[in-house]
Amino acid sequence: MRQSLEFIVLAATKVGESSMVLHTLSSGFGRRSFICSVGKSTPTALFQPLSILSGVYTENTKSELWRLGSLRAEYPLLGVRTSVGKNAMTMFLGEVLFRALRDGVNEEGLYEWLRGSLLTLDALDGDWANFHLRFLLELCGALGFSPTIQDLAPFVGERYSQVSNLLSLSYEESLLLPLSGEMRNEIAGMLLDYLGFHLEMNLNIRSLRVLRELFG
Predict the structure, then answer these.
(1) Are 140 and 198 in contact (CB under 8 A)?
(2) Domain 2-73 is of which CATH architecture?
(3) Best label site of 20, 100, 123, 159, fewest CB within 10 Å?
(4) DSSP symbol at 31
């Protein structure tokens, strides 16, 4: 049976010359991987981290890796894809989600929250350099362990005051909170340590280095 699905790409892995495994998040399945066919005419932009796509999947009783086809972008995310900084940020956030979410994880409202966050980033004009920090804090809440400043205190050290402000300010105000590039980089690493602690894993986010170079 063929059924339609809207999903967000967390990562894509090329398999041979004509196939791609898409690691996705959707409302119906949570995190799940699918295999799809790719050709020379298939736009590679479809597979960029955190693209919001739709497609048609076919169940396979003999394999957990179902086939996905008829792919198209649900939202072009032009505000993200035409910005080097926003593109790097989605690469970073996609890697965080890819490593943090286990297959089958399907927290209620997680997909809707992520889609809304991406559309917000896409639309933001002006100062959005704190977006990933607020995103990491909200991700903790979306996964069921909303942190207080007391919870974060053992992880944030000298950045206690800045993280406290990020938590207490409204969404709009937190994006405008004045932080140096060095502060953002330190806080991002601290929040990843907190997230990894609760998930009982070392996230080891390699793309954090790219953000440090861009926003440092």
Answers:
(1) yes
(2) Beta Barrel (2.40)
(3) 123
(4) E
Residue 91 has a CB neighbour count (10 Å cut-off) of: 18
Q: How much is the CA Rg of the chain, to the nearest whole Å?
A: 18
8 Å CB contact between 166 and 137:
yes
The CATH label, of 3.30.310, 1.20.1440, 2.60.40, 1.10.12, for the domain at 78-215 is 1.20.1440
* Residue pair 13/2 in contact by the 8 Å Cβ criterion: no
Residues 6+ apart with CB under 8 A from 138: 113, 117
Burial-class residue 83 by CB neighbours within 10 Å (0-12, 13-18, 19+). middle
DSSP state of 102: P
Residues 6+ apart with CB under 8 A from 214: 84, 85, 88
Q: What is the pLDDT of residue 213?
A: 80
Domains in the chain: boundaries: 2-73, 78-215
Q: For each of the chain's 216 residues, which pLDDT tens digit applies?
A: 679 999 999 999 998 888 999 999 999 999 999 999 988 878 888 899 999 999 999 988 888 899 999 999 999 999 999 999 999 999 999 999 999 999 888 889 999 999 999 999 999 998 899 999 999 999 999 998 889 999 999 999 999 999 999 999 999 999 999 999 999 999 999 999 999 999 999 998 999 888 888 766
